[in-house]
Amino acid sequence: MSEDALDFWLDVQQHENLCKAYFKDLRRSGRSVQDEWPQFADYARSNGSHFSPLLSLPSEPPSPNPTSPNPLYPVSPDPAGDFDPSHSPLNPSGSRGRRDTESHGPNHGMTSPTPSQGVGAFGERAQKEGRTSLAPSQGAGTRSGRRRSKAPTVIARDRAIEKQALQESAERIFYRYLFDGGEREIYLPPSLRVYNFPESIEGETSPLIPDLFHAQKIYVFKALEQDAFPRFLRAKAFANLTPFGSVVRLIAGLLCLWGAFVLAFSLIFLNWKPRLTRLWLILPFLFAFILLLSSYYSLSPLLFLLNLSETTPFHFINVKEPYVRKLVAIRAGIIVVASLLLTAIFVVIFTVVPGHRL
Questions:
Q1: Tens digits of per-residue pLDDT, 169-191?
Q2: What is the pLDDT of residues 265-311, one digit of tens each?
Q3: How far from chain centre, in Å, is Cα 275?
Q4: What are phi and psi of 102, to 5 degrees?
Q5: Domain map of the chain by residue range?
Q6: d(CA 247, CA 245)
Q7: What values do phi and psi take at 326, rounded to 5?
């Protein structure tokens, strides 16, 4: 669902903020990434990282062949190129009945580890040493509490951020959103799926941790931007009623329209005098058409005049955004004008028709 995708994007954003805080702490303390985390420094030189502006890496990498890609850290495909609205997890008609979303970042050209190959050289070394990534059964058992826990909304700054905190943050995201059968699993294209979590090797946090979810974050943002956000605008920026409020107005409008027709035909077949009495039909017809059109457009002109918008049934908030008020004003004006025209047409018809007492 789009709510899970949005939460994933927010958690990844917080994870990246945690990584930025770690690199800034290193810089403030006078230490370099090359000394504290040489594996990540080598990875960032070989593949690039959207944290590069914070790293202050030497211009001359120590690797033997800097011009060729490092086979230890494969590069992921462009997440924007993988986005297909028809197969997005937010789309009920897409694969597996749900659609995923994409994220944005300041540097779309930056690369991140391929999820399916994300363990890279560290994963190969781990397999040789018999320390592979957590199996699903083990991950579900040992980290069930962590997976159920929510990400903190505030990063504690009573002490410097440590690499272990980065790994714990990445684990929480992986087992919550990307682990098969996770609590709030989202669905991604095969090229962006993370099948195994890169474990620490010999006490060193995997260099894939900071950029592990960046490509997925971009993909999630793209899907939200192209699907969920337009639907949100249609529901909130172009309307001020909930579906329940629209149904209530539909029922009330039909009742008013029925009452207007009953009154109109009664005045005709009773041959009520004077004929100008039929002008009272303006009220039921006007209320009926305003209610019916309000239901159709999910927009109430009365709520617009009160500068309110319905969030949940019979709960309202003030509209503070001028652009939203402008959009609602245009649509409310269309509803009022259309209601007046329809009312005038029907009142004229029922007024000029000669009466005939049955």
A1: 999 999 999 988 888 989 888 88
A2: 999 999 888 888 999 999 999 999 999 999 999 999 999 999 999 98
A3: 58
A4: -125, 160
A5: 2-232, 238-352
A6: 5
A7: -65, -45
- 344 near 257, Cβ under 8 Å? no
Element (DSSP H or E) covering residue 316: strand 315-318
Q: Per the omega criterion (within 30 degrees of 0), is the bond before 38 cis?
A: no
133, 197 Cβ separation under 8 angstroms: yes
**Which of 34, 17, 3 minimizes the C-alpha distance to 213?**
17
Going from the C-alpha of 197 to that of each of 20, 119, 209, 264, the distances in angstroms are: 21, 7, 9, 73
User: What values do phi and psi take at 310, rounded to 5?
Assistant: -85, 120
| Token pair for 326 | 């402008």
Structure tokens at 119: 């363990």
Look up tokens 């040493």; give the residue. Answer: 129
Nearest to 31, CA basis, from 163, 205, 152: 163
Q: Which residue has the tokens 């909930």?
A: 242
Task: Report DSSP state, residue 204.
Answer: B
Instruction: Give the global pTM.
Output: 0.55
Tokens of 157: 């700054």
**Residue 202 clears pLDDT 80, i.e. is over it:** no
